[in-house]
Write a structure and sequence with these properties.
Layout: H1 11-20, H2 46-64
Length: 65
């Protein structure tokens, strides 16, 4: 079952596997902290929501007129 003569793990392989199996939900918000990839909707501030609605209104005005 073992494929190596040496004891221990292949560190590079383990790091590659860890990097390729990192999962972030596709519908998640952008994290304010790069270390916390699993931040949920509770991290969205009311000011952020207001700013997005204001940007949406501006976009609507430019498309209409």
């Amino acid at each position: 079952m073992h494929t190596r003569e040496e004891v221990g793990i292949a560190v590079e392989t383990a790091q590659d596997l860890e990097a390729s199996f990192a999962w972030a939900p596709s519908l998640s918000t952008e994290s304010r902290n790069a270390d916390d990839l699993f931040v949920g909707p509770e991290s969205i501030l009311l000011d952020d929501i207001a700013a997005e609605f204001a940007a949406l209104e501006e976009l609507k005005k430019t498309e209409e007129g």
